[in-house]
């Protein structure tokens, strides 16, 4: 199961946001870092067809997001920074179950999957509670559980800890680390990337570095220190051998 971007470019109202990105995303743990506005979220959204690029292709095992968005969205789960954007049902258990409404599973199977995922993510005691009464950290765990119950093969997480305090950020980070699925994590919490297989640095719509976490963080830190007057040379993205 591999995501591939081939020559992906995208613009909003004529302003380029992604510029000719080609990537194969095969590693189990991939981080994406970069300044605000560099194009990270747009890049992430191309991975499950939430954004279809103006040019180039995004493929999951050869399926193009342009034509197979539904199938791809089922296999590539997405977690946003703000769980409120994702929680749609009044109670915790209902919110998790709604993702299975078109799964063809029986009521009993839905119930058992919902219970298992709530148990695994520390929400079993809150199953009938109103979702809006959960703490911020619990809400993000609920958003995560509601995606995981559908058993996606890949989880794309767009700054899932940004709105959380340190303790809750650590809880969510630990949950992500424990997942068997491939995880693609966009974050400004650089310490979460320790142990990752690969980290991409995005700047002005390009992948300007692609390598080990510590090297990527060093590259990003230098880039931010250098400021916008010393933009990296075009077309010279550093790559792992
Ligand atoms: N739906 C949209 N419509 C118009 N402009 C957008 C939209 N989404 C993002 N942008 C712009 O595209 C640029 C890249 O945004 P984004 O991909 O969200 O970057 P990042 O996640 O790195 O902050 C920003 O300048 C942002 O304002
Ligand atoms: Mg973003």
UniProtKB/TrEMBL annotation:
<keyword id="KW-0067">ATP-binding</keyword>
<feature type="domain" description="ABC transporter">
    <location>
        <begin position="3"/>
        <end position="229"/>
    </location>
</feature>
<dbReference type="GO" id="GO:0043190">
    <property type="term" value="C:ATP-binding cassette (ABC) transporter complex"/>
</dbReference>
<keyword id="KW-0813">Transport</keyword>
<dbReference type="GO" id="GO:0005524">
    <property type="term" value="F:ATP binding"/>
</dbReference>
<dbReference type="InterPro" id="IPR003593">
    <property type="entry name" value="AAA+_ATPase"/>
</dbReference>
<dbReference type="InterPro" id="IPR050095">
    <property type="entry name" value="ECF_ABC_transporter_ATP-bd"/>
</dbReference>
<dbReference type="GO" id="GO:0016887">
    <property type="term" value="F:ATP hydrolysis activity"/>
</dbReference>
<comment type="similarity">
    <text>Belongs to the ABC transporter superfamily.</text>
</comment>
<keyword id="KW-0547">Nucleotide-binding</keyword>
<protein>
    <submittedName>
        <fullName>Energy-coupling factor ABC transporter ATP-binding protein</fullName>
    </submittedName>
</protein>
<dbReference type="InterPro" id="IPR015856">
    <property type="entry name" value="ABC_transpr_CbiO/EcfA_su"/>
</dbReference>
<dbReference type="Pfam" id="PF00005">
    <property type="entry name" value="ABC_tran"/>
</dbReference>
<dbReference type="InterPro" id="IPR017871">
    <property type="entry name" value="ABC_transporter-like_CS"/>
</dbReference>
<dbReference type="GO" id="GO:0042626">
    <property type="term" value="F:ATPase-coupled transmembrane transporter activity"/>
</dbReference>
<dbReference type="InterPro" id="IPR027417">
    <property type="entry name" value="P-loop_NTPase"/>
</dbReference>
<dbReference type="InterPro" id="IPR003439">
    <property type="entry name" value="ABC_transporter-like_ATP-bd"/>
</dbReference>
